[in-house]
């Protein structure tokens, strides 16, 4: 079963996205901020990380850079999630080390396609 770590500071967003992914067969772990997410990445070694960008003191870009700088976690694909649809945010996410970028509110079919592609699996869900 694919393990997804969701690093998200909003409890409602964590809960809703986690439930939706669990119904699709994913195993879910959560972290509520950047430092906790970095620790969780090393402890649970998820298959993929969904990283909120607006996390507070340590934003998702910095948390991504730190996860990617650690040899143990550097190969974990990270998909940035943000309410901001600016091209500059997408570019900054990719520069930080994210393999993909998606906007909130989450379009589940599109996100599932991105998760599958990040894992190198042919997606059964069409990408939008």
Model description:
- This protein has 128 residues and is α/β, with parallel strands linked by helices.
- Residues 123-128 have low confidence and may be disordered.
- The chain has a 5-stranded parallel beta sheet with strand order 2-1-3-4-5, with helices on both faces.
- It contains 5 helices and 5 strands, in the order βαβαβαβαβα.
- The longest helix has 13 residues, at 11-23.
- The relative contact order is 0.16.
- It has helices at residues 11-23, 34-44, 60-69, 87-96, 108-118; strands spanning 3-7, 27-31, 48-52, 78-82, 100-103.
- It has a single domain, classed as 3-Layer(aba) Sandwich (Rossmann fold), CATH 3.40.50.
- The modification 4-aspartylphosphate is found at residue 52.
- Pfam families: Response_reg.
- This is Response regulator.
- Residues 3-119 form the Response regulatory domain.
- From the 3D coordinates, which CATH architecture would you assign? 3-Layer(aba) Sandwich
- The CATH topology is Rossmann fold
Q: What does the largest sheet look like?
A: 5 strands, parallel
Helical fraction: 40-55%
Mean of residue pLDDT? 93
Oligomer: single chain
**Any idea what the radius of gyration is?**
13 Å
H/E element string? Answer: EHEHEHEHEH
Structural class: alpha/beta
Proportion of beta-strand residues: 15-25%
Q: In the CATH hierarchy, what is the class?
A: Alpha Beta
CATH homology superfamily: Response regulator
Order of neighbouring strands in the sheet with most strands: 2-1-3-4-5
Unreliable segments of 5+ consecutive residues: 123-128
**Which of globular, elongated, flat, extended, rod-shaped describes the shape?**
globular
Number of helices: 5
Q: How many strand segments?
A: 5
Give the tally of structural domains: 1
For the termini, the CA-CA separation is 24 Å
């Amino acid at each position: 079963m694919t393990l997804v770590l969701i690093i998200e500071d909003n409890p409602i967003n964590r809960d809703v996205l986690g439930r939706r992914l669990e119904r699709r067969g994913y195993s879910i772990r959560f972290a509520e901020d950047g430092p906790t997410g970095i620790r969780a990445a090393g402890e649970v070694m998820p298959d993929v990380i969904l990283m909120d960008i607006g996390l507070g003191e340590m934003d998702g870009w910095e948390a991504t850079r730190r996860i990617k700088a650690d040899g143990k976690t550097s190969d974990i694909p990270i998909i940035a999630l943000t309410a901001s649809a600016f091209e500059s945010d997408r570019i900054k996410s990719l520069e930080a080390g994210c393999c993909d970028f998606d906007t909130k509110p989450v379009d589940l079919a599109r996100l599932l396609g991105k998760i599958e592609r990040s894992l190198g699996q042919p997606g059964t869900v069409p990408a939008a």
